[in-house]
Design a protein that fits this description.
The protein is an alpha/beta fold. It has 3 helices and 9 strands, in the order H-E-E-E-E-E-E-H-E-E-E-H. A hairpin with a 2-residue loop joins strand 1 (29-32) and strand 2 (35-38). The longest helix has 16 residues, at 67-82.
């Protein structure tokens, strides 16, 4: 279909993070001086590699978008970023960021200034896992959550990752 967009893993991760952030709002915050600012909207930055560095365009109000809209908006922003055509306001205002490095199993990304959390996702690989007492091959992905411990302690970070895992392992709800 002309103009149709592909849904990629990054789009699923963005939607899963939005759903998780709704349930764990402390992770959807930024620091303003000594104050923690909570947000009703979820504005997710997505790291885009450029030849000379990295830029983080921001998808706004992700909590209100279906996955097809997220895919369309993300692909448009990434294309604009790579072409050097992002407007100044398209790379600010993120409340959470996702960075995907599809060439490594896992990594620990560095927080963006002011933000309190960032999800890093490595590549997907097939690995043996135990399911119902049997060893089976499953596609797996290593994710990490970098968090500012002035705001988000280990228990909150663990809750976020547990909820995120539950959502990502049963992604059908993300496509409704």
């Amino acid at each position: 279909k002309p103009g149709a967009r592909r849904i990629a893993m990054i789009h699923v991760l963005i939607k899963a993070c939005a759903e998780t952030l709704k349930r764990i709002p402390l992770v959807n915050t930024v620091m303003a001086g000594d104050d923690i600012m909570y947000f009703d909207e979820i504005n997710i930055g997505m790291a885009v590699a450029l030849e000379d560095g990295l830029i983080v365009p921001v998808l706004r109000n992700v909590e209100k978008k279906d996955i097809l809209r997220i895919a369309n908006d993300a692909q448009e922003l990434a294309a604009k970023a790579k072409e050097g055509k992002l407007a100044a306001d398209e790379a600010v205002g993120g409340t959470f960021t996702i960075s995907v490095l599809g060439t490594v199993d896992g990594f620990t990304p560095i927080l963006n200034l002011g933000q309190n959390a960032l999800l890093g996702a490595g590549r997907t690989v097939e690995k043996p896992v135990v399911r119902n007492g049997e060893i089976v091959i499953r596609e797996t992905m290593t994710v990490s959550l970098t968090a500012d411990h002035q705001v988000i302690d280990g228990a909150v970070a663990a809750s976020f990752l547990r909820r995120f895992q539950q959502i990502i392992e049963r992604p059908s709800q993300l496509f409704k």
